[in-house]
Write a structure and sequence with these properties.
2 copies of one chain form a homodimer. Chain A is an alpha/beta fold. In chain A, strands 3-2-1-4-5-6 form a 6-stranded parallel β-sheet, with helices on both faces. In chain A, strands 8-9-7-10-11-12 form a 6-stranded parallel β-sheet, with helices on both faces. In chain A, β5, α5 and β6 form a beta-alpha-beta unit. The longest helix of chain A has 16 residues. Chains A and B meet through α8, α9 and α10 of A and α8, α9 and α10 of B.
Chain lengths: 339, 339
C-alpha cells in the first residue's frame, strides 16, 4: 500500500533547491503526496504552481494548518529541499520536530543524518516514529567495483547530462522514459539521486553519498542489473551536476563507466553562473560542455531546455539560436513534450 | 621519533600493484623502513631492486626469517600492496595475523578495514597492538564542501595526471617537488592517496575513500590550507587514475575544483590496456588524454614516461616520437631526473 506523505519545503517551494519536492509533486509511485508545507506559497495547489495542473496537493502555510484543515492524514513528512552542502537549516529543524510530535515519520535525503542527531533520535523514540535517512550509504560489502560487464549490455544507454545541477535532468529523464514507453518500447530509467529513489525507481543508487571508489561500479551494476532483469530496449540515466562544474564535476562516469554513447544535454539559458557560485567568475558554457562530451567519445542527440526565468518567446528564440549554432535538435520538455 | 616499520608485499614487490611499498621504499618521513617480507624477491635489497640503490632494506622470504635474522626490531607492519578493489587477499590475512602475534601493529590502506574484522580485532587486543586503517573516512562534519576560495590562491598549481592508475604519478610528483625545492623555490606537494600520507606529506586527503560530494571541497581545502600555511611559490598535486579510465575516471576535479591550469602527464608506453581491464577492448590513448585535458581548459607542460617493460633505447625512441607527435617536452623522471 502506498502511504500518504507531506512535503516540507522551508518556504522555497518555487525555487530550484526544492527540486526534490518538484520531482515528487510531478511523479512518485513510492508515496501518495497529499500536501506541502510552505509559508511562501500557501493557499495554492502545488501541481498548479509547478505546471499549471491541479494535482490535489494543497500548500499549507504551517503544519498546524495542515493538521487542522486537511481531510487526509499523512504517515510521512518528506524533506523536499536540497541545499548545497546537504545540511539541515536551523529553521527547518523546528518544523521537523513539530512533525515528529504530530506522529509523522521523517524521510530525509540530507547529508546531515537525522538519525545521528541525539535530540531528533530521542524525540522520534518518544513519539514512536521512524527517521529514514535515505542518503545513508550502504555497507561497503554491498557495493560493487567496476568489472567491464557493461560491455555486454546490447541496448542503447542514454545519459541525461546538464550544464549545471538543479536544472531538470531528472525531470527530462523521467519524461523521455515515459514518452519512449508510450511509443511501445521497453524503456527504463536509472536514478542517481535521492529524488529518483523517492519517486519509486527500482534501478539506481544515490551517487553523491557513495565512496568515490565505488561510483563506477555502482553505475555499471545498476545498468547491468536493469538490463538483465527487464531485457530493456533502451535505458536512460539521470545524470548529476555537469562535466565542467568546479564545485563537483560529474559526467565522465556516465560516458565511460556506464558506456553512455549518446547524451541528452539539459541547459538553462537564463542561468549565467553555476548554482551557488556567483562569486567565482566561472560561467556556465553550453559550447564547452558539448565539446567535453565529444572529447569523451559520446554523441549529443539533442539539447533540452529548462526555461526558468524566460518568457516562452525568449525560450523559443534560444531554441532557434542553439539549433543554428550547434546543428542539434533543441527541445523544451515541459512546454513541448519530448515525444 | 620515527618508528621502524616493515613492509608486507605478498610476493608482488616487483609488480605495479606494490606501489604503496615502492613509494615507502623511495621516501617516507613518517616511518623508518627496515625491511620487506616478500617470498619472490628475498635475499636482495628493496632499494636496489627498485632503483639499483642499496637502502639497507633487506627483503626476507617470511616474517620468521625477519624475526630471526634482522638486527633491528619493527613496531609496525605496513601492507604495501593495493589490489584493484582494495580487498585483503586470503593468503595475506595469515601473514597479517602472524605479524600481530609477533607484536607488530598493522598499518593498512585497504578498503577492507582490519579493525572491522572480528578475528583481527580480537587477536590485536590479545597481543596489545594497534590496527590502523588509514583509509577509514573522516567524519562528515570534518569534511569540506567547495566554496570557490581556490580562486584566491595566487601561486601556480600543477597536477600530475596520468593515462592510467598505478603508473608513477605520485613518484613523479614527489620528484618534481624535490627538484623544484632544490632550485630554491618554496614547493609543496598535495597527496591524494594512502601512500602520500604514509610518506609523511602534510597536506592532502585520501580521495577514493571520500564521499563523492566532498571530493571537490577536500581538494580545494588541501590547496588553500597549504597555500595559507606555507606561502608556497608552487604547489604540485598527486593525481589519481586517468580522465579516460572507465573503471574510475578521475582528473576533472583537479583541473576545475583545484584549478590546476597546468599538468604533467604521466604515461607508460608499454601499457596497452587499463590496469586489470584487458578484457574490455578499451585501450589507453595518450592522444585522447591530452585532448581531454585541453578540453577542460588546462595546458600540458610535459609528458613524463614510466619506462616499465621497455629497454632504455626503446624508452628514448618513444620520447623522440612523442616529442615530434605532440610538440611537448618528454621526460624520463627515474632515468633522467626532472631538474
Amino acid at each position: 500500500m502506498t502511504e500518504n506523505a507531506l512535503l516540507l519545503t522551508a518556504g522555497i517551494l518555487e525555487q530550484p533547491n526544492a527540486k526534490t519536492a518538484h520531482g515528487l509533486i510531478r511523479t512518485t509511485s513510492r508515496y501518495n503526496i497529499i500536501g506541502v508545507i510552505d509559508k511562501n506559497s500557501a493557499g495554492k495547489d502545488a501541481g498548479y504552481l509547478l505546471d499549471k495542473v491541479d494535482r490535489n496537493m494543497p500548500v499549507y502555510a504551517t503544519l498546524e494548518d495542515f493538521l487542522r484543515d486537511s481531510p487526509r492524514k499523512a504517515k510521512y513528512a518528506i524533506i523536499g529541499v536540497a541545499f548545497p552542502g546537504g545540511k539541515l537549516p536551523v529553521e527547518m529543524a523546528a518544523e521537523v520536530k513539530a512533525a515528529i510530535r504530530a506522529g509523522l515519520s521523517i524521510v530525509s535525503g540530507l547529508h546531515d543524518f537525522l538519525s545521528d542527531m541525539p535530540d531528533m533520535k530521542e524525540l522520534a523514540a518518544q513519539h514512536k516514529v521512524e527517521l529514514i535517512d535515505i542518503r545513508k550509504p550502504r555497507p561497503k560489502d554491498q557495493l560493487k567495483f567496476w568489472t567491464g560487464e557493461i560491455m555486454q549490455v546490447k541496448c542503447p544507454i542514454i545519459a541525461v547530462l546538464g550544464t549545471d545541477c538543479a536544472m531538470g535532468k531528472r525531470t527530462t529523464a523521467t519524461l523521455v522514459t515515459q514518452a519512449t514507453k508510450e511509443k511501445g518500447l521497453n524503456a527504463h530509467m536509472i536514478f542517481t539521486g535521492q529524488t529518483g529513489w523517492l519517486q519509486g525507481n527500482k534501478y539506481g543508487f544515490i551517487l553523491d553519498s557513495t565512496y568515490n571508489d565505488f561510483i563506477s561500479g555502482e553505475l555499471e551494476n545498476a545498468v547491468v542489473t536493469c538490463y538483465k532483469d527487464t531485457s530493456a530496449d533502451i535505458i536512460f540515466m539521470e545524470g548529476q551536476s555537469a562535466l565542467s562544474n568546479p564545485s563537483g564535476p560529474c559526467g565522465s562516469e556516465f560516458l565511460l563507466s556506464a558506456q553512455c554513447k549518446a547524451v541528452l544535454l539539459q541547459h538553462a539559458p537564463a542561468r549565467i553562473w553555476f548554482n551557488g557560485q556567483e562569486n567565482t567568475g566561472i560561467k556556465i558554457s553550453l559550447k564547452n560542455e558539448l565539446e567535453l562530451i565529444r572529447s569523451y567519445g559520446s554523441r549529443v542527440l539533442a539539447i533540452t531546455l529548462n526555461t526558468r526565468g524566460l518568457s516562452l518567446a525568449q525560450a523559443l528564440e534560444y531554441k532557434r539560436q542553439y539549433e543554428k549554432e550547434f546543428g542539434l535538435p533543441v527541445v523544451l520538455p515541459l512546454e513541448e513534450g519530448v515525444g
